[in-house]
Amino acid sequence: MSRRLLMMCLSLLSLGGLVHCSKSSQEGAKPAPTAATPGATPAAAAVKTTALTAAQEQQASWIRNFNPLIAPGTARFPTRAGVYEPLMIFNTLKGEFVPWLAEKHAWSEDNKKLTLTLRSGVKWSDGQPFTAKDVAFTFELLKKHKALDFSAVWGFVDGVQAKDDTTVEFTLSRSYVPGLIYIVHQPIVPEHKWKDVADPVIYKNETPVATGPFTEVKVFQNQVFELGRNPNYWQKGKPAVESIRFPAYPGNDQANLALLTGELDWAGSFVPDIERVYVSKDKENNHFWFPLVGNTTMLYVNTTKKPFDDVRVRKAISMAIDRDQIVKVAMYGYTRPADATALSDAHNRWRNAKALEEGDWTKLDLAKANALLDEAGFKKGEDGVRVGADKKPLSFDVNVVTGWSDWVRAAQIITQNLKQVGFNATLKTYDFSPYFERIQKGEFDLSMGWSSEEPTPYHFYRDLMSSETLRPVGEIAARNWHRFGNKEADALLRAFEGTTDEAEQKKLADQMQVIFVQNAPSIPLFPGPSWGEYNTSRFTNFPSKDNPYAKLTPNSSPENLFVLTEVKPK
Amino acid sequence: MRHLLRNLGLYAVAAWASLTLNFLIPRLMPGDPASMMFARFQGQLQPEAIDALRLAFGFTDAPLYQQYFTYVGHLFQGDLGISVAYFPANVTEVIATGLGWTLLLSGIAVLISFALGTALGVVATWRRGGWLDSVMPPVLIFLGAFPYFWLAMVLLYGLGFVLGIFPLRHAYSDTLAPAFSGEFIFSVVQHMVLPVAAIVIATLGGWMLSMRSTMVGVLAEDYITMANAKGLSQKRIMFHYAARNALLPNVTGFGMALGFVLSGSLLTEIVFSYPGQGYLLIQAVRNQDYPLMQGIFLTITLAVLAANLLVDVLYVWLDPRTRAR
């Protein structure tokens, strides 16, 4: 292990960061390939084989909390799906809603009323029946406590009514079809238990009563907890797994080590060079699947600043970037270069061939990039740096987060690439907080960033092009960090909100892609992989490339419910 | 006694100053916890969620001085607030999950390191030029030059992962429930060996060398010659005459080390997934969890002050000169 890696680990560990942070410290601590005795540790050998061992959250010790309504990620996995359940689940790989607690949904003629028909015979884990009243009650809770309404459902819903035991009707304030996912993905809580909760915002719900496959807290210690089956689960014979164990791992390092020792059956962490590090240890049992259905990593361009307000400059920047190298060097070849629609594989069926054809600007083409910049009036000076009309050289910063090593490597390649076409680009690394503050306030030149993940391209493009999400520089914007608004796109988005007709939606999405491709409001780099690993020595029927019934990753709720209910003991 | 009382006053002032700093420093950092939480879900949450998060965490735009008074007021009621990173658990509850383990791990490590290092220092100086005196210092300095989390990684990799002699993580076996049984205690000890070893190896050199250097000075004193002339036993001279007097600097060091016990083993805990306090602090900083940060800093500050008080008392006992006046 080199000194540099060490220092990196040290600074990472001390400075902190998010998911990516642990990623890179993991690289630092990567065990050599030659040494491995899987299952040799006393701890691994003692683990009961009836329990599926999974790693999803990174914590050093567990706090008992099974409240599905509070901020995602604060309650223990899998509270939001697995303990409690949603009405329907969107399956990203299949691109469709799968009925769950609700059997079907229907929109009224004007798309302002949504009727959900609930499954009958569903019981809470204490034996009480699950009814439409529970659904209405849950949504009323969100209305009463704004702090619980994470998808801002009450921004477009006017009222919720339980018509009878199995029918719930949502009245919307406007036709808003993309709102369906926020309604049906809401975890539902039992009225008979929650009506007496004084403050659901800070309620820890230590002994959950729920409809999900795993509701019994069998063990809860601060370094491990175990959830057992729901005796009243509505899917007969499921789950096949008796219980799930969650040992606490403070970071990717420790989770990956557990993967290597064969202790973990299911995980969703980033593992560098996984074929060599993980699969080769036990080719028969160790598997991974990283489908490219995550969000797209972007290079955001501040469109309020000169010269980035010029679409030719944005396209030229994009054409100068060597995405193949980024994918290979920064991303271990886990992904592919993005195309000009910026859509990930989750949206494959929406991709417009015509827009793709027009979008040549994500392909490396230095000659064309140079020509575009010349045309835009930025001539190369004597030192090879381009100067604008004001005779000032084109200098700018590329912002990235300290310690997110994959992004830092990508940004290094980008600055090198940009120098070749005459930009004086400098890499600037910031701690996460200042980075995020800058990007939200629009105080940057170029910056790496992520995009949104939704079932349809509607939200994706709304956050990239809608003037509704536009905020002035200096004011915090949760999305649209690059500050780009387009009237045509606004109209398309409006139309999309009002239609359930798939053909119509496809047509609108096609046009959105064309506008995106023409305007290049931000520069897509690569679609994000969805990390997932599994070990088949004790359990089978995990989703995989050959059996893609759902995303493998435990990190994506409520989709992980598919895996929780389908996995079987060997 | 007057001496101790005056010191108590000083400690009170120090405690107040650090409380105030605890309050101010996190608030001077850029960003806010809601944004951090939001960002953790890169693109999976709606923008509106930020507002919901802010509401849930109960952020106020109240002027700083008002926040300060609320903070101090709550503090005296033993209410450290609600943690953001571990929402909605109370800070006291969060700290309670790790404090015991951290105290156990680092406390034992510091004790072993201090006792062993000091003893080695005494013996090495007594036999100056012997093999112990010539071999140990350079070796220990070399080992001490590595940060202890790195030593921890090497131990984890070598003895834990490759050889499988020691467990890789946690404070006790996952299949056991905490209990006062032989099996459980054995498991705790077994899980503690590597992390404690990492800290001891890294810090032993310091204790030994500082003891050695004061011992060298003390051994040249006239009263040692006098004791030798009186024909006292070597053991008595070594421990009662030389070591006791040479111990003072090390006792000061011990007090300091005790205080930092809470913060010191942070990285080692992370390497071994030890359910201690170290990771909590990192989580708190990552998530801009002001209440948790304040709570942890508070425990560290109080621990440092308490340890110093303890050293003061020890000093008075060890060195009669401090009793004068």
From TrEMBL, chain A:
<dbReference type="InterPro" id="IPR030678">
    <property type="entry name" value="Peptide/Ni-bd"/>
</dbReference>
<dbReference type="InterPro" id="IPR000914">
    <property type="entry name" value="SBP_5_dom"/>
</dbReference>
<dbReference type="Pfam" id="PF00496">
    <property type="entry name" value="SBP_bac_5"/>
</dbReference>
<keyword id="KW-0732">Signal</keyword>
<dbReference type="InterPro" id="IPR039424">
    <property type="entry name" value="SBP_5"/>
</dbReference>
<feature type="signal peptide">
    <location>
        <begin position="1"/>
        <end position="19"/>
    </location>
</feature>
<protein>
    <submittedName>
        <fullName>ABC transporter substrate-binding protein</fullName>
    </submittedName>
</protein>
<feature type="domain" description="Solute-binding protein family 5">
    <location>
        <begin position="96"/>
        <end position="466"/>
    </location>
</feature>
Automatic annotation (TrEMBL), chain B:
<dbReference type="InterPro" id="IPR035906">
    <property type="entry name" value="MetI-like_sf"/>
</dbReference>
<feature type="transmembrane region" description="Helical">
    <location>
        <begin position="292"/>
        <end position="318"/>
    </location>
</feature>
<dbReference type="InterPro" id="IPR000515">
    <property type="entry name" value="MetI-like"/>
</dbReference>
<feature type="domain" description="ABC transmembrane type-1">
    <location>
        <begin position="99"/>
        <end position="315"/>
    </location>
</feature>
<keyword id="KW-0812">Transmembrane</keyword>
<keyword id="KW-0472">Membrane</keyword>
<feature type="transmembrane region" description="Helical">
    <location>
        <begin position="103"/>
        <end position="126"/>
    </location>
</feature>
<feature type="transmembrane region" description="Helical">
    <location>
        <begin position="188"/>
        <end position="209"/>
    </location>
</feature>
<feature type="transmembrane region" description="Helical">
    <location>
        <begin position="246"/>
        <end position="272"/>
    </location>
</feature>
<keyword id="KW-0813">Transport</keyword>
<protein>
    <submittedName>
        <fullName>ABC transporter permease</fullName>
    </submittedName>
</protein>
<feature type="transmembrane region" description="Helical">
    <location>
        <begin position="7"/>
        <end position="25"/>
    </location>
</feature>
<comment type="similarity">
    <text>Belongs to the binding-protein-dependent transport system permease family.</text>
</comment>
<feature type="transmembrane region" description="Helical">
    <location>
        <begin position="138"/>
        <end position="168"/>
    </location>
</feature>
<dbReference type="Pfam" id="PF00528">
    <property type="entry name" value="BPD_transp_1"/>
</dbReference>
<keyword id="KW-1133">Transmembrane helix</keyword>
